[in-house]
Amino acid sequence: MKAAYNGDARKRPVTLTLNVDLVLRAKEVTDNLSWVVEALLSDFVAQKQAQRRVKVKTLATTVAIWNHFNARRGSFAIEHSTL
User: Fold this and answer.
1) pLDDT band at 82 (very low <50, low <70, confident <90, very high)
2) How far is residue 14's CA from residue 9's CA, in Å, rounded to a whole number?
3) What gap in Å lies between CA 12 and CA 66, rounded to an integer?
4) d(CA 47, CA 50)
5) What pLDDT was estimated at residue 1?
């Protein structure tokens, strides 16, 4: 799977607020917590971007269907217009 980010970009320290017990337990199972967090964050970003693409495609399809219906049948609002 292609990375959802530029893996060659420079790294910089960031401040996160994490549960101390969870960090200690994570450090027991990995030597490189930064890499683990980066990998998990990459997966999270890729998943959210994929969800956003699906949502945009779904909305575009819905609008196209509605516009097609409106072009063939007209607007429901015409029946209820007070003009």
Assistant:
1) confident
2) 15
3) 47
4) 5
5) 53
Mean pLDDT of 64-75: 92
Six token digits for residue 37: 């967090």
Q: Which pair of tokens denotes residue 2?
A: 């292609």
pLDDT at 35: 94
What is the gyration radius of the CA atoms in the chain, in angstroms?
24
Extents of the domains making up the chain: 32-78
Whole-number mean pLDDT of the chain?
A: 91
The closest of 2, 3, 4, 1 to 52, measured between CA atoms, is 4
DSSP 26-60: HHHH-S-HHHHHHHHHHHHHHHHHHHHHHHHHHHH
CA angle 59, 71, 66 (to 5 degrees): 20
Which one-letter amino acid corresponds to residue 43? D
pLDDT at 5 over 90: no
